Protein 1
Amino acid sequence: MSKLQAPAGALQDRLKALTPARLKGMRRGIEKESLRAQPGGGLALTPHPAALGSALTHPTITTDFSESQVELVTGAHKNPEDTLRELTQLHQFTYSTMKALGDEMLWVSSMPCGLPTDETIPIARFGSSNVGRAKSVYRMGLSHRYGRRMQTISGIHYNWSLPDVTSEQYFALIRNFRRQAFLLLYLFGASPAVCSTFVEGRQHALQTLSDSTMYMPHGTSLRMGRLGYQSDAQASLAVSYNSLDGYGASLQDALTRPYPAYEAVGIRNPGGDYNQLATTLLQIENEFYGTIRPKRVIRPGERPLHALRDRGVEYIEVRLMDLDPFEPVGINAQTMRFLDVFLLHCLLGDSPNDTPQEIAEIKHNQHQTAARGREPGLKLKRGGQEVTLTNWGAEVLAQCAPIAAALDAVHGGTQYSDTLTAASAALLDPSTLPSARVLAAMAGEHGNSFVRFARAQSLKTQALLQGLPLGADELAHFAALTQASIEEQKKIEASDTLPFEEYRQRYVSADRLGMPGHEAVAI
């Protein structure tokens, strides 16, 4: 047994087992989604700019669900500043390209800009290759299953790893993260309001703030609440995080279980166009919505579940962070430092197996915090009891203090401890939280209009990023990546030999999920 698996209450011993070399080996990277918006605050309906390269093959600039949704991806870095530097440069290059093509901007809020009718929102296109077509068909499936509006919600994913952590330890981290994720929603949620076009024709519990804006007075992250990435179908999933085997079995069930509502949609429509990749509860692994995921870099053509089963967890992906509209690139170094401390705390703390009762409590706490997190005296559920959000949050922050001190000792300075001090102050003064600041700015400067607020912040960010100098070397680097990605897409398209239907059937085959005792089938 490693010291990281020491008996209960031994967090300090586990912390001491983390050598300075391992702590310095911590890596983090970011994936950031942003809608392209028109100057007036409506969704841009233009194609992904060709000057940004191929969305299929570019390693750092791609699209997410929509052709109008840019996704910027950094590498894994040894400190928050280097991560922020790369993310900023990606924004600079993207903006310099967009400026040459017109006056579009990147929307700085997680909740979308003014949206057209659902069917008008353009689905991302990835070219004529089988893999490119499969990506678009998967997104078409999402549009049939959940509607296109939900898919335009944007966020930041924080990819994090530490050397010499086993799959078992990563799953222990994930269980603790899910238990305490309410604190991240409270501290960093920045989506308390939405444009009324987002909820048009949908049932919701939002209150009217103005003619064009709906909100929750004490909301923190509507993106992570009942209006966000939620689905009745997925609510039936009982995914286990107690082991890689259990997690794999849960996902395999969802990926192979026929779902009547999706069977009714069918693989193709009467005209022969594809509606979705499969009629199972999940088309592919990425359709499973969670606040955190175990991840492993996949090989070409490999299914993510097979990669996990074959080689174990390589890093984790935190998926609940809103874009901060007050930060030029949606996040700052202090927030990254908090995430580093928080994730280490989740790794080092005792992590009993989850139970159906606890999973229900976690879901309840997520929805409560998302919709009512800043409500004075708000209570959450923990082990069958009620506890106030602020008291529980204070407990977590106190437990994080020695971890922050250890990181400060390794890196020099007091930046990690300062981050905790700021979080403790914010816990006690909700008016300083991003979600409260959004509502205050909307009320004070924008007539309680969400779109007017987010548009003004987007324009301010656009001017700032376009005004930052991008060196000749960086420009040449990005230009080379653009050209290489275009050439790579052409090669992929030229090398395809399988008819698409055969490719699709092979890709969604259960034989490719890496079942124990089975070799995954190649395509």
Protein 2
Amino acid sequence: MSEPPRRRSQSNGPRLQELYEDAARLYSRRGLFRVGAGGAVLTTGLVTAASTRFRAPEVLLRSENAGAAVRPFGRHLAFGPDPSRQVVVSWQVPGKVEKPCLRVGTRAGEYGEAIKAEVRALTSDLAWQEKGALFTVSPHLGKAVTQYYLHVRLDDLVPDTTYYYVVGHQGCEPVEAATFRTAPSTNRPFSFTAFGDQGVGYNALATNSLIADLGPQFHLAMGDLSYANDGEGGRPATDVYDARKWDSFFAQNELVAAEIPWMVALGNHEMESWYDRHGYGGMRARFTMPDNAWDGSTCIYSWRYLNVGLISLDGNDICYNSDANLDYTEGRQQVWLKAQLEKFRNDPRIDFIVVYCHQCTYSTSGNNGAEIGAQKRWAPLFDQYQVDLVLNGHNHVYERTDPIRGGKGTRKAGIGGTVNPVEDGTTYITAGGGGESINSWADSKVGDSYYGNVKDATATMRVDQEDGEEKLVKVTWSRVRFRGYGLVVVGVTPKTTGAPAEMKVRALTETGALIDELTIRRS
């Protein structure tokens, strides 16, 4: 019987990164790119150093400079705390490059000086990733894979302005220009979308396409983003991980994320404990969120878009369902949340407060259930400061509650109805149908109830208790339920003389079909 083929050792041939670095020494191009009348031109000298250890790959030999074979991809935007003046442009390159930069201007083809990008290299040992069957490792890859994430923070932008930008590096012509628009400085109608649990695949592409069709001002991605970590999260001994799945995630989302800012929250699958104690080193490399809760916070932040104050929370901190990071902030997030809610509610510019996170405060799905930590720690603050809307993922379904206060529904809010958070309480929405597999309800006898198929019923909420025991509770506040893919789109209208501000919340399937609609109106 013949022996099975053995994996090629590192000593048998060069690693991909070594090939690239040697080719970079061999080949050069005098100009990076030229754009715009009067625009600056970044130039480089001819590099003559060479290595004769091996022949560079043909794909590199066909270029004057190795940088020409390394193309930027996965562009994604984010707002800063002031979206009228602050935007972050991020992207990725598949290898180390020289002088990565961004150029930006207010007219297509006319850009300013090259702005140097910050490079965040993230190295992942393949030894972390060899268990399970999530991926196939090339025998030529070596012992680790390094991903290069690039970021440029733009400040002092002009409000309500469309900007054109290109990214590139030494030896690489810029990729096709993309645009972004800063927020206006005075109130006007706008919209945003939201979902969690996207993953990578055709269902995720369908929801992305819907975002592009809707054209919102920004998108909220509420955790469990790429599913590169296919385990519970925070359990490196048992989690199945493939760092390179993030490459597919960013390439997939560039369709919309290159022009529509994505504001992300952490899910349990973002606890990648190989990188640091709490597992968020990878997220800090890939994204640049405002992170203004305290120095060193990751994806815990607040910001304001016109008359809406938004807060991103880390549900892993209060999660008994996936408890690897339970209480890791030692109460710091709780103190910050209370202070930020008070600040927002006392800000005369803000009509609505929207909180988004991954774990569900209230849900009747049987897979991850509702989170007792959120019910006991956060919900009383939501009540106290009259939070208008709480959005989350975690359970891969759509579900909307009646307005809730003190843990109980205050009144029935049917499809097409209107609620007043001042009188009625907070509306909670689970929008976990971003693209991953669909979950089920805790009570299999309670089916879907949505537009055109209304079936009111008493549902069952499953809650994991602090002692690890599971508790089942009958509830009447589960107003709309839908097992399928889709997203939430929120249209915000500012108050006018004689008319209060309102948010119209709609839930759409991945094909754009309406399944729910609710108006939140403050008075």
Protein 3
Amino acid sequence: MIGSNGSNPPAIVLGGGITALSVARSLAAVGRTVHVLDRGSSPARASRSVSAFVDVGEVEPQERMLEWLQSGGVRGVLLAGSDDGVELIARNRRELLEHGHHPVEGDDEALLAMLDKPRTYELARGVGISVPEYLPLPDLAAVEATIERLEFPCVLKPVQSHLFARRTGSPDKVIVAGSPSELRREWERLTSLSLAMFVTEVIVGDSDEFVSYYGYLDETGESLLHFTKRKIRQHPPGFGIGTYHETTSDPEVAEVGLRFLQAAGVRGLGNVEFKRDARDGRLTLIECNPRFTLSNELIRASGIDLALVSYNRALQLPPPKLNSYSVGLHLWDPVNDSRALLEYRRRGELSASGWLRSLMHQQRFPTLRIDDPMPTVARIRTMSRHAFSRRSPRIPAPSTGPAERRTGATGARAANRVMERLAQAGGRRGRAVASRLDLVASTGVGPAWRRVRAERLFSQLSEGTRDRLYERIWSEAAERCGAGSVKLSPGLLELRREDRRTRVYHQVVELDDPVTLQVALDKALVYELLAQSGVPHPAHVQWGPPDPQPAVAFLAHAGGPCVVKPAAGTGGGHGVVPGVRSEADLLRAMWHSARQVDRLLIERQGTGSVYRLLLLDGELLDVIRSAAPSVTGDGHSTIEQLIAAENERRVKADGAAGLSLLGLTLDTVLTLRAGGWRLDSVLPAGARVPIRVGTNNNAAEDNETWKDPVAAAVLEDARRAAEAVGLRLAGVDVITTDISRPLGDTGGVIAEVNGTPGLHHHYLVADPERATPVAVPVLQALLGLRSE
């Protein structure tokens, strides 16, 4: 039997709760039918991504799972979301194959070894990987011997975690014994449940020193991927389930984690967790999970689809493309992390303000999705029921690291006191959160949630699209120059002619040195250099978030709208907020522009059209006139719907309509407000309304190859601007009402001097047949060829 999507058999996820939900969403997103076999409390039961849910109960879930799999109703790819799923596959692989199933890849002996914590430690110790000091507790005599040998507190652990969870009904992974009497009492209680237990020392170190490695080992033992993360917090602190995670890129964790998986003989998916011991700095192995984990949603958001990798490998299909993943992403469990805060505060390790500052990132959530809300509702109901039926108070976990220094928030000075306080207290992170809250307050919760939902669509216009476009641009240029091209990696080419060669990556070429490019990124410094050279540029003031008064004074005397933007370190229009007309606008713009920087510029907004002059060693290669992005009404769609339709069009065009999409920014909010529109406004048929002032995110149709005259004085100003910065290849942005006249006559300015100008802007134009192949003269210069 096959799934509803043709030749692809359904995926059958064996247990996992939240983990099963993430796996199901991942595979449903690529068109796979998903069945979940799990306990009735699993949030996956309520997900629209799950085609069928089978409640296997709390008592003997493996037996119920195996019975269902043997029934012959559905045959599919078996994926383990829980230790029960791992054990079921490892002990019944041959029988499952005979029934037509496709169990996930794995070495069954190694799978069972990873479910046995002492065996896991033995394997690690055998290859020189640090493990906690541990002792088995087969009888009371061993407990008494342990009391004499180990210091307290110590950690009582089950040999097999899934049996512990099933028989105790506890969400806790371990029990911390603070005294000999507590150890005796807990050992007696747990052995009465036929649970094998052992005891380990407490690994000293901060609570955020728990780090993990994920790999997927093929039949030769080589890993198809490498991923690392850390727990920022967990509940209970030091020994619990992670409540706040962050993706990292840690070569040491990756090396030790892979070494263990290879030594243990693991095949397929493997996750190894360590804690860094504060006493000697070594990574100490905590556990190994040969399955998906609660962090799967974070891994998926970072760019690695472990579920699809496992599914394809089980069917002997090529795995999906495995690119590098995003570092610095966060996964937050709000409810459990709030509970964790209470214990961290009690132990003196975290203040409420410190907790808030740590959350000032874009967050991913274990269950919450606007397009699939019911699992979150189901989880809240389950947690509410459990809150009223706690078995006993938890034994407080010991502090394993130093307390955090507490700092308070500063007072607010603006009208919106809540967001201002947040921005002041949290620095850049606080301003980032304030900017997000500002958009929600400006547009309403609905558009904000729909924007989050649209991020999946936005991600489809990926770096691969840019790679392919630039590979075509440079390959065509090489052909016209009589050169060859070799692709070194996506977007990175080596171009050769005879004994000459050069390398290019997208628009980055080997013409200008890194120091000069850094100068070009410092907009305040560029304006100073332009002033020294007598080049017209915007009147401006440099300022910073701690003291907005210089910007307030500038705005009061500007006599028109202003632009707030980062003073250095960004490009591509990031953080640029035009249309600032009031002090309230200025405050909002500060939050949005200063999310990643502490220096800002405010300048008078230019009047006229934006022209990009591309110069190479003073020679004008091309001119593009860019219009701001806009939408055209159809008489029934709202502006928000028109923006969504335009984004879908660009995604389907795979870069031909533009390399960026229309997100919801403060520029959008202020532009619509200035025109008397809102996101829920319905435009008359044929009415064209600009939705931004900035041109960076416009469509190809908004760019025109300019063939009309350019005033000699304007060209000379552009040349002097490039020379002042020291650039050979420069994109000079001119704002003027008439480029055929000197800037002094029109009040025009040079607003930007770009060191790595986007060459794609000159190809993605309204009339591609008239586009100037600017990569050709650039390549000629790179290869030292004469212009032909």
